[in-house]
Each structure stands twice: as C-alpha cells, then as structure tokens.
Amino acid sequence: EISGATGFSGETVTVVAADDPIADGVAATYTGENGSTRYTTTERGVVAEHSDGSPVVLHRMHSLNPGHAVLIGHDFYESNADQDRLVGNAVLQLANTNDDIEILAFDQYADTSATGEVANTNAGIASRAGELGVSYSLTTVSDSTMLGSMLFDHDVFLVYEQESSDTATLQALG
What we know:
Layout: E1 2-8, E2 11-15, E3 29-32, E4 36-41, E5 46-50, E6 55-61, E7 68-72, H1 81-92, E8 101-106, H2 117-132, E9 136-141, H3 147-150, E10 156-159, H4 167-173
Parallel strand pairs: 8-9, 8-10
Antiparallel strand pairs: 1-4, 2-3, 2-5, 5-6, 6-7
C-alpha cells in the first residue's frame, strides 16, 4: 500500500535492483525528469529509489497468478533515455509471450495531446522496442467500461498518467 507521494524534478534516482529486468540498460544513477514522483510505502520490490531512499520504481510479481505489477514514478511529461528504458522494459520484457506483444493502454484521463504524456510514453516504448528488436501492437481504450471485455485479449495492460482525474474516480475504477 502506498501512503504518500511527493513530486520532484531534476533529482538523482538510483537503481537498487540492477538484476531486475525493468532495470536492463538503465544507468546505475539517472536524473528523474519533471513530473517524477517518490512514494511512501512499505511495499517490497523497489527497483529504483530517490536520493532520500524513497521508492520511485516498484516491481511486484504475483505469486498466485502469472503476471507483474509495475509502478513507475515518472509521468513522462519530460523524459530521458533511462526513463524510456524503464517503461519499455516494463511493457516489453515482462510480457509472457514469444509472439508480438499485445498492449492495451488506458488513456481516459490522460494528456493525449501531440506532446503530452501518452505520446512521450509511447515514444519511450517504441525506442526500447527498437533497441531490443521486439515487435508489439498497442490498442488504446478511452472508456473504462470497455476494459473488462478487452483485458484478456492482451499481454500487457498499460495505464498512462491519469492527470485529468481525481483519486476517488480512479479508486472507483479499481
């Protein structure tokens, strides 16, 4: 459970689990760009942390069901190669498939402008896919009522930063 979050910009983030697939190709330390967040939590699975020791990237494998949950504390308002590799690795290297990776991306409350977080996140994924030589397809859904019928047809569920929503609305979605 996450009990708090604090934004930061231009500060050092350190990879503390270099053997985690999400950290593949990411520098040992990198700069968290504008729109980054560090969390207050007792969750395990910290991949990268802020210079004050607060988690920025968390990766949790589910023990009962095959799958992963990843929280990346960068909203991609601004990005860099290391942040791009983090999101690319989370989406492309954790998918449990040998075929093209099918991504379902939720953007109902996201900034979908040409230079917004969705475009920047997608650019990071595309860049990492090129580096890894993997192929994928991305299906975007903007209506939360459609998620239930679409989730099982995809390998990865990506939730962009949902900046135009509030906590209560997102909690109601589950």
